Amino acid sequence: MPGFLKNADTFRDKGVDVIAVVAANDPFVMSGWGRVEGVKDKIVCLSDTDAAWSAKMGLSLDLSSRGMGLRTARYALIINDLKIEYIGVDSAPGVTVSGAEAILAKL
């Protein structure tokens, strides 16, 4: 989230209406995370509590073997007029194709 927060104005300048972060946490955790990060009106923190939405999109990760259940994968989408134009999924630890810089390069 820090890269998106840092570049929020650049995203807006490129015509992005909404920057949203989705995670398999409850709304209270997402709200708290947003407050701690200081997102204010720059990022919307969305709850995909049981990762059902992410799973339907093929963007979930089963971490049951680690006691964490189904989680959202680390991914980024560019959605334009309700059409997905870009999907970047990071398969290894770290942020590459789902990071703010990668998304800015795709806009």
Automatic annotation (TrEMBL):
SUPFAM superfamilies: Thioredoxin-like. Gene3D superfamilies: Glutaredoxin. One of its GO terms (biological process) is cell redox homeostasis. GO terms for cellular component: mitochondrion; peroxisome. The keyword Ribonucleoprotein does not apply. One of its GO terms (molecular function) is thioredoxin peroxidase activity. Keywords: Antioxidant, Oxidoreductase, Peroxidase, Redox-active center. InterPro entries: PRX5-like (IPR037944), Redoxin (IPR013740), Thioredoxin-like_sf (IPR036249). Residues 1-104 form the Redoxin domain. Belongs to the peroxiredoxin family. Prx5 subfamily. This is Redoxin domain-containing protein. It comes from Phellinidium pouzarii. The lineage of its organism: Eukaryota, Fungi, Dikarya, Basidiomycota, Agaricomycotina.
